[in-house]
Amino acid sequence: MRRNINKVIYVVFQSFATVAVALILSCARKPVNVTQLDALPDIYPDYKEVTVPVNIAPLNFLIRGDSCDALNVVAECNDVVVYADCESDEVTFDMRDWKRLMSESVGCSIRVTVSKSLNGEWVQYKPFHIMVSSDSIDSYLTYRMIEPDYEVYSRLRIVERCVENFWERSICDYESVGNRCMNCHTYNSHDSRQSFLYVRGEGGGMILNQNGNLRKLALKTEEMVSGSVYAQFSPNGRWLVFSTNKIIPAFHARPSKRLEVFDTKSDIYIADMASNKVVRNPLLADSTHLETFPTFSSDGKIIYFCSAERLPHIGNIDSLQYDLCRVSFDERTGEIGDTIETLIKSKKGEKQSVCHPRVSPDGEFLLYTVADYGTFPIWHPEADLQMMNLRNSTIYKLESVNSSKSDTYHSWSSNSRWFVFASKRDDGLYGKLYFCHIDDNGTTSKPFVLPQESPSFYDYCLKSFNVPEMGKSRLPFTPEDVAYAIKSDAESF
Amino acid sequence: MLSYPYHYYWQEQNVLFSDVYRLFGHFYYYQYAGPILQCVAFVVILLVIGHIPYLVLRRMRLRRCAIVVLILVFISDIYYTYLHSPFNHNYKPYQYGLSHRDFEKTLSVEMEYYFGNYHNVLQNVHNVGIQNVVISFYYYLASAHLGLLPDNLLKISPKELGTLQTIGEDTALAIINMMNDLYYSVGDMTYAERAAMMSCVFSPNNINMKMLKRLAEVNLVSGDTLAAMKYIRYLSKSSIYREWAVEHTPGHTMSERVRMDIESKRRYLNNSDTLRLGDNCRVILTELLKSNPRNEIALDYLLCTDLLLKDIELFKRDYDKYYLERGLERQKELYQQALVIYLAGTDATEEQWSKYITMPYVKKRFAEYNKCRGSQDFKETYWYYFDKE
User: Fold this and answer.
1) How far apart are alpha carbons B67 and B72 in whole angstroms?
2) What is the value of ipTM here, to two decimals?
3) B143 CB contacts (<8 Å, ≥6 apart)?
4) I need a labelling partner for A81 at 20 to 30 A (CA). Which of A88, A283, B99, B317 fits?
5) Among B203, B218, B274, B285, which would you mutate to test the A interface (most chain A Cβ atoms within 10 Å of its Cβ)?
6) Whole-model pTM above 0.95?
């Protein structure tokens, strides 16, 4: 009896060993008698001919199309040759190999050659290239992960991710503060020592991080239509410009348009974080207009914002078009100027309604979203990014950046050479974060999606990435700190 | 009566990730386990744990201990994966307000609808002998697909059409899970998508495979191939849904049956471009009828909702606008009975009576009913419902 058991165990081990050897051999197979194809490989995410920063994590990808017997992927630049690990249709790079390849490829392009074996016959696709820019990108990125309809949510998280590798953690999540809405983590000048985020619902408020000390702020006065919604720090960190919005969600009857979110009231206020005072100016809180999406210029001397005339009723929502405006600001006293200048006037029937203006840290460019109408471009397939040169008012349409789906929710890197934005280009439903390089002349490159350790990550992900912000270093607080701050009494204004 | 364990199929629609997925790279589904089976498994684990010190005390060989430990790990994994799983935690009969036995009966109705066996749905509802909102909802929906909604409206209780339900944070999961079927049937793809997404949001781990299928179907009908492929690709990774995914992939692998089904659904799509602030069924149904007057499911749901609300004037307006003016030839006794109430209450002329009442015996029966209003002999009529329920 015992001999028989031993035999069975022996046979099982033998089988495992055989399978393991076969797997190892199949992985190590090199292409022989290769037929060259005059086509680029169908890979996902699309990393073909993109420009990436030197410090980016490995660009792991999938090979789409019919399954193959074996796969061979080689990435090379100068004398450095790296063989990717290929399993099934997944291509991954060893972190150490990737970093070596990137450091040797600064200012050059990496040539990636994909070969695959179909029914024992090897074919090789035309190689594609990945340009490596010497402009590095901020190491950390924060974003929110939420269901794409934004209306009802579960297991919400605000995530901090290191873009140089695959490390990530929650900075606020449902486990620590409960299943409630949280949003808009925003740095002051990409500095992790000062930032804020919102935790909504009962007992919630703005959580202000100052060197890891968290304060809960009730940034709301009686005259405001809501608490603060869209907000930005002034460069010196003393002032916060924010909008208060009465937001209405609605559904389009036509399935291709889906969700619409719009404001019926909105105003802009300025908060003095040093004295906990809110400043209201009728120029930014005009009852006949909707003012929203405020942001400071990089020197703190101008406030950019969007403004539209209030609609009498929601039936003609496509008339709700926002102009891009600006007003001067004195960072020393907190006073705003007397006149509002309109930089872009919206035009009925043209894709010219402006959302989310963001000034580059070097003060050269203003990046914003244009859509047909409204304040929720994430559900507008026509929503595109545009950029204005603030020196000469030249407008860049960014055709190489935009897609046929929504491209919006953008922010700059601290060196003004990269911007990140949420795009629905893959499926029209789930937003993903794309990075785009921009040179001195304002020329942009083809954007690439945030790399993930598992190449099939995005296929399985049923959450949208949104409100991305880049930071220079790791944030000094944890979800538990946020949960603790939530329990404290809010500072009033 | 119940030929197979319906919960097995029902669970399949609610497939979740499990340890098996992590080991083999496939989806798998949790077995539904009632409290007795969970207790038995727990006792077995305790016995095995108790066996280890016994072996040690008996100075058995280390190898045997190792084998027992391995068995323990294996059983624990099975226990966690199948019995103590999020599935069993989140899907319990009490969510439907039912016992285990009635739960199975309820699922028999829901699953037969899922398979498209509409006649079986009607038969099962009459056989199971229990009443709840889920059973009624699928009974009416199956009836509507067969063109029998007005005929069956008064045959069961509770009279839950689903049209007056709204989805929000406080809505029961059972209701959320079924609403997408109604919207998909009447042809409103915006709300079918929203309801399916909501169902996913409220499911364990925010994933519900039945809803992913529905999301793929909705986007195929809407013509949003990119969005449909998101879900089809997801489903194609599952050993259970791979075949379905291949059959629904746009292109040469899509079957002719699926293609025709999608085409027929597209005829009912909403052509208007309006904004809706809530899931008001009246707005949804009337817009669908304006886009396609031949949408009989939407029409029956609109008229039957009016009747359940006992709003006879509204019913008459909708009947005129969406039934008579469109020249529909279908005659339903329920609608005739409701029209009789309207005509009698408005002192209608003979001309109006002859215009609306095309079934002469309805008028005669109404006269009989008026002699003994509320009599049980007229329990199946709308007049009785109007007066008594």
Assistant:
1) 9
2) 0.88
3) B118, B122, B149, B151, B152, B153
4) A88
5) B274
6) no
